[in-house]
Amino acid sequence: MINPQVDESPVDEVSGKIKNKGLAQWVEEVTATCRPDRVHLCDGSEKEYQEMQRLMLHAGTAIALNLEKRPNSILVRSTTLDVARVEDQTYICSATKEEAGPNNNWEEPAKMREKLTKLFTGSMQGRTMYVIPYCMGPLGSPISKIGVEISDSPYVVANMHIMARVGAKVLEALGTDGEFVKGLHSVGAPLEPNEQDAAWPCNSKYKYICHFPETREISSFGSGYGGNALLGKKCHALRIASVQARDEGWLAEHMLILKLTSPEGQAKYITGAFPSACGKTNLAMLISTVPGWKVETIGDDIAWMKFGPDGRLYAINPEAGFFGVAPGTGMKSNPNAMLTVTKNSIFTNCAMTPDGDVWWEGMTDEKPEELTDWLRRPWTPASPRVAAHPNARFTTPASQCPVIAKEWEDPKGVPIDAILFGGRRASVVPLVTESFDWQHGTFLAATTSSETTAAATAKVGQLRRDPMAMLPFCGYNMGDYFAHWLKIGATRGANLPRIYYVNWFRRDDKGKFLWPGYGENSRVLKWVFERCNGSAQAVETPIGRLPAPGALDTEGLDISGESLAKLFEIDVKGWLAEVPKIKDFFAGFGSRMPKELEQEIEKLEQRLKK
Q1: 3-state SS class at 233
Q2: Is 34 a catalytic residue?
Q3: How many CA atoms lie within 13 A of 127 on its CB side?
Q4: Packing angle between helix 478-489 and helix 438-446, nearest 10 degrees?
Q5: CA gyration radius for the chain?
Q6: What is the pLDDT of residues 218-243, one digit of tens each?
Q7: pLDDT in the model for residue 15
Q8: Chain segment 71-109, per-residue pLDDT in tens
Q9: Is 560 exposed, middle or buried (0-12, 13-18, 19+ CB in 10 A)?
Q10: If 0-12 CB within 10 Å is exposed, 13-18 middle and 19+ buried, where does residue 64 land?
Q11: What is the predicted pLDDT for the residue at 610?
Q12: Where are the alpha helices (DSSP H) in 250-311?
């Protein structure tokens, strides 16, 4: 086993360097349980990051990429046993099952702690235990939160360097008695003396990702991959933070944040929540096709929003990097993402070219003549399998994004003018709908859905409901989560954003997309901007407000009048068929479901029948 060259110390020396008494005590407790050979307190330095890379290279976990093509970047390949979030083994261990809700797996806290203690006991034997202080959001922001992840994985340390603000500055901000979220992670693969380590250590038998909302704790065992192991991401920034937000009166959301600037130089800030495969990252880094209009990125995945003194919701991106899905990302779909990952990046489960670069499906129109696939096997276009894993990832600094907004790290956040929600629907749902008010907007958001049937048939099949794109990430009962949204809307003195529902994926009778999407989505953003300004017209319909004829800028767009009409058609029969499906979905939350949203269903049905 390669010994790290970073500064390491026995646990008593490490805890002695930590001024925060609660953290020092916790480090000692974890060390006694997990029994690592060494302990390292992360300082967040470039030297430390390079050492994590060196450790992964020597262990065979990573391969250094071509310095000329991809400077300071590595390719990491996991095993087939550890390639994605393990949602079936993700638990909310709240005091009661009702508190966790039907949207979460629940386990009684004491029972789960007993199980985890057995698994973690001795789990870091033969390894270094890394103590990673991190801040979600800009240091010094009133919206930011501090956490500490303890892990035995250099891969986690390296990724956390990119995805959060880590190290000595965070410890200083934490002070002697500051509160922090505790995150304990182990790959669950202890080493005997002189035992050869696996290139990708993980536990093939046990994987648990557990959240204890009341005590703000996370325990992750057995997986070294992505959101299972990078505990600042989904675990802290959404599941734990959503509970903090409920208790403290703010919003922790699975949303992008973008800045939209008009030709006159006026800027507005928009957030957006979209389930997977709905173009969220592409929208965050959009290149506008409307002359004079510019889109810049604040964040691509998570938004934390708190009320400012003026009653407006101010948002920060709590992350410092992008952890994006690689397949499908290319110069056509998202050139700004491609330009962001040109250097200083970690690629996971991508294919590799003969000259030492990465490749994945969708990166280029033509497939390379030969590759090494993500499982280290030779690959050609004739191979009957994909070259990169469908959930292959890139981890890259947000600061490298060519359209990152100058205020993306502003501690006070940016004032939100509009919130978008959207799913992937082939029919029924128009291109863009403005809600009547906050309560109606919450209703629209709560009904977010995507179709799971084959797209080519253009038939409305089984719908997967994903309210606010938060179904896998809400840390408590979603009925209470809806109630929290309504409570935010009723906050005294609130100056609330407008709420919109968008659908880029409506199809014609032959199964072809009616809307070109990608950069053309800037036309919808322009209408939203102008609605917030009071300069664009809308028409009232049973489902909400739609752009008035001529209000959506289609100048220079190759789209027929018939297609445009179809995009905004109100399919009364289709919507009436939606009503019982929404009722059934809401009924799943029982008495926790807010009456206001149940009333919105009745109002919708009445409007449709007029």
Answers
A1: helix
A2: no
A3: 27
A4: 160
A5: 24
A6: 999 999 999 999 999 999 999 999 99
A7: 74
A8: 999 999 999 999 988 999 999 999 999 999 999 999 999
A9: exposed
A10: middle
A11: 86
A12: 280-284
CATH assignment, 11-61+86-249? 3.40.449.10
The two beta strands, 208-212 and 90-92, are parallel
In this predicted structure, the answer to whether residue 4 has a pLDDT above a threshold of 90 is no
Q: Could you say which of 34, 42, 278, 401 is catalytic?
A: 278
Structure tokens at 524: 């919808």
Residue that has been written with the tokens 């289709």 in this structure? 574
Tokens of 215: 């005590």
pLDDT above 80: residue 126: yes
Is 459's pLDDT higher than 60? no
Coil, helix or strand for 513?
A: strand
Segment 254-263 shows an average pLDDT of 98
Pull the structure tokens for residue 435: 């809600």
How would you write 464-476 as a 3-class SS string?
Answer: EECHHHCCCCCCC
For domain 321-400, the CATH superfamily is Phosphoenolpyruvate Carboxykinase, domain 2 (2.170.8.10)
CA distance 416 to 298: 12
> Which residues sit opposite 420 in a β-bridge?
272, 500
What residue ranges do the domains of the chain occupy?
11-61+86-249, 253-320+407-609, 321-400
CATH fold, domain 253-320+407-609, is Phosphoenolpyruvate Carboxykinase; domain 3 (3.90.228)
Q: Which helix (H) or strand (E) holds 50?
A: helix 46-59
CATH topology agreement for domains 253-320+407-609 and 321-400: no
Q: Which amino acid is at 365?
A: D
Query: Could you tell me the pLDDT band of residue 522, with boundaries at 50, 70 and 90?
Result: very high
